[in-house]
């Protein structure tokens, strides 16, 4: 039976996450996401998704030190990054640089460590280079998230680091989304992990998937003041435009990741004006979406509050999708490994129609 966009089609079995779109529930393996962000670090959560257990102290230390080893950029990747045209978007740069990673092991899990570790360095190196800022080398005394902020900005604000860590943990894994599916399709041909992750990055780039947070910033910049919310959203809906940061293929209620990010933002002592505008816009937009699309059940998705967090951290919107990719690479790798361990090549059929 033909299902456009494979809507509702079950294409794989996975132990990596459970999503209940009607109830707004997300579990990594069998642990609710709310518990994960309260109890575990970025590294512990990544380990849990990749290896299947929360690591004991010794295992965690080995994993953390692997990430530290692979953070450093090999010379050939630096050269590639330096030679790419300035106008290339960060996602194009990330896709190109990741595709040139030389895997050092036969083990998929070790290859995954290598790819997870190197992505933040690629992003920070390239960003500082095109902004003519001195390059900051990775610091072995810092954990994965703090090191990323340090390489990008040169200093670490602990509140900001904690918000970014929550965002990165929350976006590591999300079932068979488009980019994860790409990774699984590629590895199902018995290709390698670098090729699988390169496919996934190309898929993530699109505005209907990972490209939404920059769209959210543009939307809120366009609204600018509370009194313009209704007018701007109404006009967009009248022109049949999509409102970025709203709607989800799976969630038909509030996206639990958006909820958790909003809670994290509310821990701030004082909410920046921009965030107050985002909260008010969410409320009004949901009302308008209900009116214009009464059967669709459209709410904020994770990208909406991701944009708010990135804006609070003063991170350039050009980096949003690449940073999202630097956490989702964990889900991509875990899925690719799950696929290759019980593989059937993907080869659906196409229905011929006369045109
Ligand atoms: N604004 C306005 N209308 C919307 C929106 C939206 N954000 N999302 C869905 N709709 C409407 C569509 O216009 C369509 O209406 P119609 O039937 O009257 O034509 C209906 O809802 C169904 O749309 P589909 O695209 O079939 O729904 P689907 O579940 O496949 O879409 C998607 C999911 C692509 C995320 C969609 O909601 C969207 O485009 N949202 C905006 C982009 C966005 O925020 N993307 C980030 C997603 S989260 C992530 O990728 C991590």
From TrEMBL:
Family annotation (SUPFAM superfamilies): Citrate synthase
GO biological process, one term: carbohydrate metabolic process
Entry's transmembrane regions: none
Keyword Acyltransferase in annotation: no
Cited InterPro entries: Citrate_synth-like_lrg_a-sub (IPR016142), Citrate_synth-like_sm_a-sub (IPR016143), Citrate_synthase (IPR002020), Citrate_synthase_AS (IPR019810), Citrate_synthase_bac-typ (IPR024176), Citrate_synthase_sf (IPR036969)
Catalytic activity field: oxaloacetate + acetyl-CoA + H2O = citrate + CoA + H(+)
Pathway: Carbohydrate metabolism; tricarboxylic acid cycle
Gene3D superfamilies per the UniProt record, alphabetical: Citrate Synthase, domain 1, Cytochrome P450-Terp, domain 2
Entry GO CC: cytosol
Top-level taxon: Bacteria
Keyword field: Transferase
Keyword rRNA-binding recorded: no
Residues annotated as catalytic: 248, 303
GO molecular function: citrate synthase activity
PANTHER family, alphabetized: CITRATE SYNTHASE, CITRATE SYNTHASE, PEROXISOMAL
Protein family according to the UniProt entry: Belongs to the citrate synthase family.
Listed name of the protein: Citrate synthase
Organism for this UniProt entry: Virgibacillus oceani
Taxonomy of the source species: Bacteria, Bacillati, Bacillota, Bacilli, Bacillales
Gene name for this UniProt entry: citA
């Amino acid at each position: 039976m033909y299902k456009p966009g494979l809507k509702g089609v079950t294409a794989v079995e996975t132990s990596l996450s459970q999503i209940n779109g009607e109830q707004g529930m997300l579990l990594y393996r069998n642990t609710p996401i709310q518990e994960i962000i309260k109890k575990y670090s970025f590294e512990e959560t990544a380990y849990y998704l990749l290896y299947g257990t929360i690591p004991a102290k010794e295992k965690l230390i080995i994993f953390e030190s692997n990430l530290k080893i692979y953070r450093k950029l090999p010379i050939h990747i630096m050269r590639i990054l330096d030679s790419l045209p300035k106008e290339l978007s960060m996602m194009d740069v990330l896709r190109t640089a990741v595709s040139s990673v030389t895997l050092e092991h036969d083990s998929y899990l070790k290859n995954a460590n290598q790819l997870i570790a190197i992505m933040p360095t690629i992003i920070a190196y390239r960003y500082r280079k095109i902004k003519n800022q001195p390059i900051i080398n990775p610091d072995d005394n810092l954990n994965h998230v703090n090191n990323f902020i340090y390489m990008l900005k040169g200093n670490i604000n602990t509140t900001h680091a904690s918000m970014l860590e929550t965002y990165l943990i929350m976006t590591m894994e999300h079932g068979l989304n488009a980019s994860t599916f790409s990774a699984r399709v590629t590895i199902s041909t018995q290709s390698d992990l670098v090729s699988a992750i390169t496919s996934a990055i190309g898929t993530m780039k699109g505005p209907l998937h990972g490209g939404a947070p920059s769209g959210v910033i543009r939307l809120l910049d366009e609204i600018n003041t509370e009194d313009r919310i209704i007018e701007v959203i109404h006009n967009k809906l009248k022109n049949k435009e999509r409102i970025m940061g709203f709607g989800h293929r799976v969630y038909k209620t509030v996206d639990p990741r958006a909820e958790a990010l909003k809670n994290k933002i509310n821990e701030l002592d004082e909410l920046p004006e921009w965030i107050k505008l985002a909260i008010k816009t969410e409320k009004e937009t949901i009302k308008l979406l209900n009116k214009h699309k009464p059967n669709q059940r459209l709410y904020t998705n994770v990208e909406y509050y991701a944009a708010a967090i990135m804006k609070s951290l003063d991170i350039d919107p050009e980096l949003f999708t690449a940073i999202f990719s630097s956490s989702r690479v964990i889900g991509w790798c875990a899925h690719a490994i799950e696929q290759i361990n019980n593989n059937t090549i993907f080869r659906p059929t196409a229905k011929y129609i006369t045109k």
